[in-house]
Amino acid sequence: MDIPLEHWDAAFDSQAKAFLLGVREAARLMPDGGRVVALTYAAGSRTGGLQPWVGMGSAKAALESLVRYFAVALAKRRITVNAVSPGWTEDSVLSSLPPEAQSLIRNWHSNGWTPMGRLGTPADIGNVLALLCQEEAEWITGQVIYADGGASLMNPEVPPEIQLG
Predict the structure, then answer these.
(1) What angle in degrees, to the nearest 10, is found between the helix axes of 5-12 and 54-74?
(2) pLDDT for the residue 53
């Protein structure tokens, strides 16, 4: 409720506005059949519980919307536009959190919130980006791909111990 406008503007400038300007310029220079891939954090764009991230979550939602608009606008040139939404990943913003929070998040994911039983790695996310850039991915456009070990499939209202059986 009380986010300073300069924080709001910084979030939108660094996410949605930067993507808008970057794709417009890249599309001008890019050959037909190219690829555009954004990095987002879908949980931030579709939840509201982490109040300090209101600006960034809203900016990520705008970025995800732009992915869809650009996908349609560039489709005739066979340029695909997608987003990758990593879950909690080692060597990421997680490293900037207090040690107690890092430990809670790591334990929560390894104990069942992520069905694959671990946090992602930078290589995991890089592999998804590489996949979307391959020629064989030319039919995938306007999508947000969740690269989160299945965490986005979990029901937040039911403990993982019950969901995983």
Answers:
(1) 30
(2) 75
What six digits make up the tokens of 6? 């300069």
3-state secondary structure 26-61: HHHHCCCCCEEEEECCHHHHHCCCCHHHHHHHHHHH
Alpha-carbon dihedral of residues 137, 142, 148, 154, nearest 10 degrees? -130
pLDDT at 48: 63
Per the model's pLDDT, the better-predicted residue between 41 and 47 turns out to be 41
Given a contact cutoff of 8 angstroms between Cβ atoms, the answer to whether 55 and 10 are in contact is yes
Domain extents in the chain: 5-84+125-147
| Residues 96 and 90 sit within 8 Å (Cβ to Cβ) | no
Pairwise CA distance, residues 43 & 40, whole Å: 9
State the CATH class of domain 5-84+125-147.
alpha beta
First-to-last C-alpha distance (Å) of the chain: 40
The pTM score is 0.90
